Amino acid sequence: MSEAVKFSMKFPKQIFLTLIVIGVSSFYPLSRFANQEIISGVIAGIVLSVVNVLMGYVAIEYSFNKSYTLFIQVVLGGVGIRLFVMVGILLLLIGVFKFHSIALVGSLFGMYSIFLVLEVLYIHNKWQHKIQNS
Question: Which end of the chain has fewer CB atoms at under 10 Å, N or C?
Answer without folding.
Answer: N
